[in-house]
Design goal:
heterodimer, A: Rossmann fold, 6 helices, 47% helix, B: alpha/beta, Rossmann fold, two-stranded antiparallel ribbon
């Protein structure tokens, strides 16, 4: 399991210096660590978070947005009619609820279709694992700034330490 | 009554009056006719013209304001837009960025799609903003008041909302000519 402070440090090491989002239990440890470091600006909806991140990017920051995958549905229009067409990069740190069909019913459809959904709207994505973490972070760092697009890093349950291990 | 009694000014007239008072401040302009009109009145590199992501103009401006605390950031918004992204009033009210001015052109209709009514005739958006924590909030009906209040807001710590009741008249303005990636590039360069 990756410690939350190691995860946050890896993000900071790749230059990310503006974090916003809407919480999920899987992301609880990461958000707590970001709040400890006074790096987190909370948003009330995922599309708002994505738009704030776009503004911060244009003002010189390197942004990341944290969200549960249900938030991809909420923010889809902002992602494709703002970030993608205006070429505004952003790291999307997305918790993968409903993976493998084992979760509450509201997560099951998005949990199943999420990778296809992002393929369809041409947002590159990758799933973080402890074994491949260094490569995963390197891929994120290279992809989002080079391609000037949002990229998603999926966080599955138990990969990054949460608040209640 | 629609538009509100005593309202004679058009959005383009109001916008032209505001833009005369602005110089190099970043201005994030919501999608639809407002961006087209601003582009026609004064095309400045400090303008970020939106063509999609309705409801998100103040969130983009908030991101700029938080990242550039020493620059006053303006957003030009509409009543339909504010209603769609109303949660952002709460985020702004809670974070209280001092350098944030939210201008709402309230014509009580979705003008870009054919003047279907919004609900801003019965929901006073400036009162919502005040309750959410905006520090200065004004509702104006004519040009003299809008100039007076906007000049005052430029001198004060925000967040501020200036709601301008405007009529439904739309300026004959074409689409914004710059491509979206070019709008991003020149806005970034202009506010760096």
């Amino acid at each position: 399991m990756i410690e939350s402070d190691v995860f946050v440090q890896a993000m900071q090491d790749m230059g990310v210096n503006f974090f916003t989002g809407v919480p999920d239990s899987i992301l609880g440890g990461i958000i707590a660590e970001l709040m400890n470091r006074r790096l987190y600006t909370p948003a009330v909806r995922e599309d708002e978070a994505v738009a704030m991140a776009a503004g911060a990017y244009m003002a010189g920051k390197t942004p990341a947005v944290l969200m549960q995958n249900s938030g991809l549905g909420t923010s889809l229009n902002a992602l494709i009619s703002l970030n993608v067409i205006y070429r505004q990069p952003c790291v999307l740190i997305v918790s993968w609820r409903g993976q493998g069909g084992k979760d509450a019913p509201e997560h099951l459809v998005m949990g199943e279709v999420m990778p296809q959904l992002l393929d369809t709207v041409r947002i590159p994505h990758r799933t973080l694992t402890e074994r491949t973490a260094i490569e995963d972070f390197r891929w994120v760092a290279e992809t989002f700034m080079k391609q000037q697009v949002p990229v998603a890093l999926f966080i599955t349950k138990g990969v990054v330490k949460g608040l209640h291990p | 009554m629609r538009p509100e009694e005593g309202t004679l000014i058009s959005r383009a007239q109001a916008m032209a009056a505001l833009l005369e008072l602005l110089t190099d401040q970043p201005v994030v302009i919501c999608n639809g006719f407002p961006s087209r009109e601003a582009h026609k009145i004064a095309d400045r590199p400090t303008h970020f013209y939106m063509i999609g992501s309705m409801g998100n103009a103040p969130a983009i401006a908030l991101g700029v304001a938080l990242a550039k605390p020493n620059k006053q950031v303006i957003t030009f918004d509409g009543d339909g837009n504010v209603l769609m992204g109303m949660g952002t009033l709460a985020t702004v009210g809670a974070l209280k960025p001092k350098n944030f001015i939210h201008v709402v052109f309230d014509n009580e209709v979705y003008g870009t799609t054919g003047n279907q009514p919004t609900i801003s005739n019965v929901v006073p958006l400036e009162k919502v903003a005040k309750s959410a924590g905006y520090v200065n909030v004004e509702r104006v009906l004519d040009r003299d008041d809008l100039l007076y209040e906007f000049k005052d807001m430029l001198k004060k710590d925000g967040p501020s909302m200036l709601l301008i009741k405007v009529n439904e008249f739309v300026e004959d303005a074409g689409r914004v000519l710059h491509e979206p990636p070019e709008i991003t590039r020149r806005f970034m360069k202009a506010i760096a």
